[in-house]
Amino acid sequence: MSDKPLLQVQDLTAHHGAVRALDRVTLDVPERGLYAVLGANGAGKSTLLRTLTGLHPATSGRVTLDGEDITHLPAERAVTKGLAHVPEGGGVIVELTVEENLRLGGIWRGRHDPDTMAEVLDLFPPLEQRRGKPAGTLSGGERQMLAIGRALMARPRVLLLDEPSLGLAPMITEQIFTLLGDLRDRTWLTVVLVEQNAAGALSTTDHGFVLDQGRLAAEGASDDLLSDDRTRHAYLGF
Ligand code: ATP
């Protein structure tokens, strides 16, 4: 590995029609650790994640992964380079079993990989217990675990999660955040999560990036952002 950050975003701009959803965003994500992208509704969080993973086109700017320019790679190439995206709501296929959903996540690697499947099931015991059951029978928290497990099947270097707590009860949200902390501690991964639940996310993550109207308004150690009244009141709503 080079000394450079794993993921580098330089002057990234993206539009939805006439709306400038990202406005010259520059940030570095070092290897390993848990990072939060925060901000109000419409701040550009989802657009940032989707632009990083090739699901939305960049208007200008640059994204590099371990020094390699990936700015204009389509999503299916970005995943083979090591970026996995878990969309809002998880996007699991409810008619397929837990195991079939997991196998789909590994499809990018070209062959079934029982070792990675075993690792993922070991990380998420509820999925192991329900591996033959349709995903539609899982609870909300288990579906989110399945969505994360499916992304891990691609053996990504960076896991990008869009609102993993959305629609989950507070206790389940806490479990998902704890699980992401365990992932950071137990694996090779860099995890970037977009969250509306800023207080919960900052209590879990190492570092936060705050977007406001498409711009990077603040960033810092999560503990520092949590105790920074000005940033909390201005951008995070608590
Ligand atoms: P939320 O938490 O509400 O999802 P966000 O911070 O993820 O918000 P984005 O969804 O990235 O923000 O939206 C950024 C801006 O782009 C907003 O002004 C939004 O209205 C606009 N936008 C997002 N998606 C579209 C779309 N499909 N068509 C038009 N405008 C869009």
From TrEMBL:
Residues 7-238 form the ABC transporter domain. The keyword Nucleotide-binding applies. PROSITE patterns: ABC_TRANSPORTER_1, ABC_TRANSPORTER_2. SMART domains: AAA. One of its GO terms (biological process) is L-amino acid transport. Transmembrane segments: none annotated. It comes from the Bacteria. Gene3D superfamilies: P-loop containing nucleotide triphosphate hydrolases (3.40.50.300). InterPro entries: AAA+_ATPase, ABC_transporter-like_ATP-bd, ABC_transporter-like_CS, BCAA_Transport_ATP-bd_LivF, P-loop_NTPase. One of its GO terms (molecular function) is ATP hydrolysis activity. Keywords: Amino-acid transport, ATP-binding, Nucleotide-binding, Transport. Belongs to the ABC transporter superfamily. This is ABC transporter ATP-binding protein. It comes from Nocardiopsis kunsanensis. The gene is livF.
